[in-house]
Amino acid sequence: MNPCPPLRQLLADAGKLRAFLFLDYDGTLADFAPNPDVVLPDAHLLDLLSRLVERDDLRLAVVSGRRLTHVRALLPLPGVWLAGSYGLELVDPGGAEMQRLDYQALRPRLAAFKPGWQRLLAGRDGFYLEDKGWALAIHADKAQAQAAAEVLAQARMVEVPAGFRLQGGERFLEVCPPEADKGAAVEYILSRSDLDGVLPLFIGDDDKDERAFTRLQAGGGIGILVAPRARPTTARYRLASPHAVRRWLRAYLG
Fold it and tell me: Domain containing 196 — which CATH number?
């Protein structure tokens, strides 16, 4: 995996005139918040993205695991695709909202499941239960390593409701619908876009972004991993940090 060349070079190498940038938020455009329910809009980031949106040769989409209400509060930008809950809920560039599943059919099952995880975490330090509406996630990044391993193992034993699946990461466990998939979200957005002369790129930092890398690159696009060091990934290129992502984007503005 190589350091990421400038966007102008990637376009020239692909023989394309325009880019469609798909961007994760936490860990990609911005450093992680103290906890996932913290919503702190970044004026410098908003200015950068606003300038990018004004270009005729760029389109932007932000695809996040956060709920859509958070994404919209963080990025109150017209002319951009915003996808929350891994793309289960979206806003198109014109401001029209859409959902890829029936929330009212799914939520009661998740609401019935939630108390089991609440009881498991009650009184334990370093754990945080995030309710995303479409999904529930346990964050154990502030817990001691042994406690995190034990609690997440117990959480995995709680029966997952019909229509949901477990997915995990380092000190993280989530119950969500199988359709909560960034790769599927990218395909959904691309299917509603004019792709003539367009190079799609996805920039993201974790295992949920790998699905988007794989699907995008299968169609001729490019995946870019955000990580301080090289690691196993399907992405073709790497940027070291959210600050590096912002520098890379600014460079295209000239």
Answer: 3.40.50.1000
Q: Are 149 and 168 in contact (CB under 8 A)?
A: no
Please give the pLDDT value at position 32: 82
Segment 135-165, tens digit of pLDDT: 999 999 899 999 999 999 999 999 999 999 9
Residue with tokens 């198109």: 92
pLDDT in tens, 38-87: 777 899 999 999 999 999 999 999 999 999 999 999 999 999 999 999 99
- Looking at residue 90, the DSSP 8-state letter turns out to be E
Could you tell me if 209 and 26 are in contact, meaning their C-beta atoms sit under 8 angstroms apart? no
> Which ranges of the chain does DSSP label H, i.e. alpha helix?
7-14, 43-53, 68-74, 103-121, 145-156, 182-190, 207-218, 242-253
The Cα–Cα gap between 128 and 174 comes to 12
**DSSP structure string for 185-214:** HHHHHHTTS--TTEEEEEEE-SHHHHHHHH
Task: Tell me the pLDDT tens digit for each residue of 39-50.
Answer: 778 999 999 999
| CA 181/CA 106 separation, integer angstroms | 16
pTM beyond 0.90: the answer is: yes
CA 162 to centroid of chain Cα atoms: 24
Q: What six digits make up the tokens of 59? A: 């389109």
Q: Domain ends where: 176, 202, 234?
A: 176
Same domain, 91 and 109: no
Q: Are residues 70 and 119 in the same domain?
A: no
Number of domains in the chain: 2
CATH classification at residue 150: 3.30.70
Range of the domain at 119: 103-176
Among candidate residues 64, 34, 97, 11, the one with its CA nearest the CA of residue 204:
64
